[in-house]
Specification:
The structure holds 2 protein chains of 2 kinds.
Chain A (H helix, E strand, L loop, with lengths): L4 E5 L8 H8 L15 E2 L3 E11 L4 H4 L2 E8 L2 E8 L21 E5 L15 H10 L5 E16 L5 E13 L1 H5 L7 E5 L2 E5 L4 H13 L3 E3 L4 H7 L21 H25 L3 H20 L7 H34 L4 H29 L2 H16 L13 H22 L6 H20 L8 H37 L6 H31 L2 H27 L1
Helix pairs in contact in A: 7-8, 7-11, 7-12, 8-9, 8-13, 9-10, 10-15, 12-13, 12-16, 13-14, 14-15, 14-16
Chain B lengths: L1 E5 L8 H14 L4 E5 L5 H5 L9 H7 L9 E2 L5 E4 L8 H7 L6 H6 L8 E5 L6 H9 L2 E6 L3 H15 L7 E6 L7 H12 L13 H4 L1 H4 L3 H4 L4 H21 L9 H12 L1
Parallel strand pairs in B: 1-5, 1-6, 2-4, 2-5, 6-7
Antiparallel strand pairs in B: 3-4
The chains are: A alpha+beta, B alpha/beta.
């Protein structure tokens, strides 16, 4: 028996004060003399109201680490509480200060209740020490708002001491992110709780006696609500990372249908990130939004053999346009995030000059973001997502080629095998003297390969993961090589603009010069590391992994396509 | 968990009223607060409608191998728990004397409660004894109610002198003016002198009030039966000031502490 709280459903469904319900259902109870099995008197019934907000990042980083963070209205202000999620073993990260009991709860006062918190906005203290490493650059957002209103009736003993509390409450649950996005359906729900019996520490015996008395008189015990049941009431799945969705695929299913499902999954990702992009909750929303667009575009290109007709090509152009809208904002986000890391190791004077550039980047980013938000709100952008979904769901035969009927494992393997061999061929041909363009070509092919393997991984259960891991090692090198180059171009351009707009003195150009030297050196380092990384990628063992997994189904696809064309 | 003792060598200065009201404020702000009524008179337990009786007495509590959990009782207010008094507490000195490290004993028995509560408050009996020294070892700060009179200042001076060479683990000392009656000229003079000097007093003073005295009648904290009255507001203010001081002390930024010398000067000035 849970001795902290019990829930009961009384036979009568009448509403009103707890005292009157009690008197009506159990005339002997509550007057201290009427029933010797119920020797407590009803104390003064009071009303109460409380507000709670549960915070987590969009991808549930706290929940996944085993923590729950809530803010509670208390006194004239707010209090925040960090406590372990029931059933979880929370990570005990406290900045490595000292060993601690992992089941500890932390509480602290908040001067104001914000709607969202970035790591830097968290008030210093034990809670922030634990949260910051977990959320990184993600903002804490309100995931569930809970307004509780109700009445409480104490049952008191002969000394007028409260020994049990009866509570009747109505809870209004709200998903603020959906509500903010005007998706009213499912964003709010009101629940009438059963009558709750709350124990008072050290007085567990009266609680048991009251519970037994209620049961004897026909009252039914009910399950008490939990945070998880509240999330479920709002159709929220805490712990589910919206950007890491793995599609379940039947390898024998037709490639056309599965590819539509892949596109729909990516579209879901895009739409789930869109509100965060528009509101600028944190930079990861835009990043995830762009990744979903890039994947869509890449798969559209790779799988164009499955679809036909001008509409499909128009969608490809439109998604290219959509990706382009978000590029400048993401570039500035990245520059801003990276600048602090790049500066480390530079002389203090240079770092100070770069402070001007940092401020300029922040302002410029805000400007560019406004423009992006306007564009994303246009009818063209909104309609694109809507039309794409309609087209994907319609799935008429006239839009598809004969290849769409071939099993997905064969078609996906054919595409993967082709690109993989291209990467091997181009990579092997590169020497330390080859121009940078060669590396970029390999990088782009690697991206296509990665997206194909990730989006169709469900069709290749098991060993595809190790192939993705091998590819990732090479991609990290190529990605860094490219980033250092792109960042040099962008930093130079931004510095010149800052000087031109008189947002910084010409001194900044010297500082940026030093920064570019550092980036250039790092880029050269990645260039030199490429040969080793590629050797690792293309070892005989690793080649065998890819061959075993993709060659045979790729050949089968060729035969199936030939047969289909002949027919 | 932060820990705080409401302590004074002198009796009748408002320790119990302070302890009960502050614990209530802390709990109403959402903290989990435990108040230990260490005074064998059991006034705190009485205020909270709990029998001043502990099964096995103080000896069993201090010699318990497990934690003090089994003796904790919930008050009538959410988040506010009590370890009741017992008349046997009058012999706590003797019990402590029997242990290997008498001064550390209280801290030792309180340790297992640190993850259950955010604040621990001790309502101490008026005296300076081995129990008091155990309290000094166990808590982060001493909140010292001081009536604006010469005798009260004198006992504060005594306490500060006693703690001067305490060394590591010395609690912060946070005196404040208690039972202040502005119509009394001595009270006014002390209050002004304390405000003028760097005596290290908290700025909040608790006025003498019939409403506070009525706690015995209502058997509950002032704010529970008169939430908007002046004394209730003063206790809220006192909590805020004390919380800032104690958390700053925990982070190594303790506020300026009172010095026996400064208190002695005020005391002397009043005599002239």
């Amino acid at each position: 028996m849970n001795l902290e709280s019990l829930a009961f459903s009384p036979p009568s469904s009448e509403t009103g004060s707890i005292g009157s319900r009690l008197a009506e259902a159990l005339p002997g109870a509550g007057n201290a003399t009427g029933d010797r099995n119920f020797p407590w008197a009803a104390g003064k019934e009071t009303k109460f109201a409380q507000q709670r907000v549960y915070l987590d990042s969009f991808d549930w980083r706290l929940w996944r680490a085993g923590w729950i963070l809530e803010t509670v209205q208390a006194g004239n202000g707010w209090q925040w509480r960090l406590f372990p999620r029931p059933g979880a073993s929370p990570s005990s990260s406290n900045g490595g200060k000292k060993k601690e009991n992992p089941y500890q709860e932390f509480r602290g006062r908040l001067n104001s209740s914000r709607k969202q918190y970035a790591a830097e906005h968290l008030p210093d203290g034990p809670i922030a020490d634990r949260i910051r490493p977990l959320i990184g650059i993600r903002a804490l957002l309100p995931r569930l708002e809970l307004d509780i209103q109700g009445r409480e009736l104490p049952l008191v003993d002969g000394r007028q001491k409260t020994v049990v509390r009866l509570r009747q409450q109505r809870r209004h649950l709200r998903n603020p992110l959906w509500a903010a996005a005007a998706e009213q359906a499912g964003a709010e729900v009101t629940l009438e709780d059963p009558l709750l019996l709350k124990s008072v520490r050290g007085f567990e015996k009266p609680l048991r006696q009251v519970a037994a008395y209620f049961t004897e008189n026909g009252w039914q015990t009910q399950p008490t609500s939990t945070l998880l049941s509240d999330f479920e009431a709002l159709e929220l799945e805490p712990g589910q990372d919206p950007a890491r969705y793995v599609l379940t695929i039947d390898p024998e299913a037709p490639a056309g249908q599965v590819t539509r499902d892949v596109f729909l999954t990516l579209l879901d990702n895009m739409e789930s990130c869109l509100d965060g992009c528009l509101a600028g909750w944190d930079t990861e929303f835009l990043h995830d939004f762009r990744v979903a667009i890039r994947r869509t575009r890449s798969i559209q290109g790779q799988m164009r053999l499955l679809f036909q007709g001008p509409t499909y090509d128009r969608f490809r152009q439109s998604f290219r346009w959509l990706g382009g809208l978000t590029g400048p904002t993401r570039d500035l986000d990245v520059l801003h995030l990276k600048l602090a890391g790049y500066q480390a190791g530079l002389p203090v004077a240079v770092q100070q000059s770069l402070g001007d550039l940092d401020r300029y980047l922040e302002r410029h980013e805000a400007q560019v973001r406004r423009k992006m938000v306007r564009s994303l709100r246009t009818q063209r952008a909104q309609r694109l997502l809507l039309d794409w979904r309609t087209w994907l769901l319609a799935g008429t035969e006239s839009q598809q080629t004969v290849a769409a009927e071939v099993p997905v494992s064969q078609i996906a393997a054919a595409r993967i095998w082709k690109i993989y061999r291209r990467v091997l061929k181009k990579g092997k041909a590169l020497t330390p003297q080859s121009p940078a363009e060669g590396l970029h070509e390999v990088r782009l092919d690697c991206k296509k390969l990665r997206y194909l393997m990730e989006m169709y991984r469900g069709a290749f259960p098991g060993s595809i993961r190790r192939c993705i891991r091998v590819l990732k090692g090479l991609q990290d090198n190529l990605g860094d090589f490219n980033d250092y180059e792109v960042h040099q171009v962008l930093f130079r351009a931004e510095a010149l603009q800052a000087v031109e707009k008189k947002a910084a003195s010409e001194q900044i150009l010297l500082a940026v010069g030093r920064l570019l030297e550092v980036l250039d050196q790092r880029q050269q380092g990645e260039r030199e590391a490429f040969a080793g990384r590629f050797r690792e990628f293309a070892t005989d063992d690793h080649q065998r992994w890819f061959r075993d997994l993709f060659r045979r189904p790729a050949k089968q696809a060729e035969k199936a396509l030939e047969a289909a064309h002949r027919a | 968990m932060h820990s705080l003792a409401v302590y004074s060598i002198k009796g009748g200065v408002g320790k119990t009223a302070t302890a009960v009201n502050l614990a209530y404020v802390g709990a109403s702000l959402g903290y989990r607060v435990l108040l230990w009524d260490l005074d064998p008179q059991g006034a705190t337990s009485y205020y909270l409608r709990v029998k001043a009786k502990v099964k096995g007495g103080g000896r069993r509590m201090l010699q318990a191998k497990s934690s003090l959990d089994r003796w904790i009782l919930g008050s009538d207010f959410d988040g506010f728990d009590l370890l009741p008094a017992d008349f046997s507490y009058r012999h706590l000195d003797l019990v402590l004397q029997e242990s290997k490290q008498p001064r550390q004993k209280l801290a030792e028995v309180l340790e297992p409660l640190t993850s259950q509560y955010d604040w621990l408050l001790l309502d101490c009996a008026p005296s300076i004894s081995l129990v008091s020294e155990g309290v000094f070892e166990a808590v982060d700060a001493l909140l010292v109610p001081t009536i604006p009179t010469t005798l009260s200042l004198r006992t504060l001076e005594q306490l500060l002198k006693h703690l001067k060479d305490w060394g590591r683990g010395r609690p912060q000392v946070l005196p404040f003016l208690s039972m202040l009656e502005r119509r009394k000229s001595l009270h006014r003079k002390v209050a002004e002198a304390v405000a003028r000097s760097e005596a290290g007093f908290l700025q909040t003073a608790i006025p003498f009030s019939a409403l506070v005295e009525a706690m015995g009648k209502h058997r509950s904290p002032v704010a529970a039966y008169s939430p908007r009255c002046g004394p209730a507001a003063c206790f809220r203010k006192l909590w805020a000031e004390m919380e800032t001081a104690v958390t700053a002390g925990a982070d190594g930024h303790a506020l300026q502490e009172p010095k026996a010398k400064v208190i002695a000067e005020i005391h002397k000035a009043l005599q002239n």
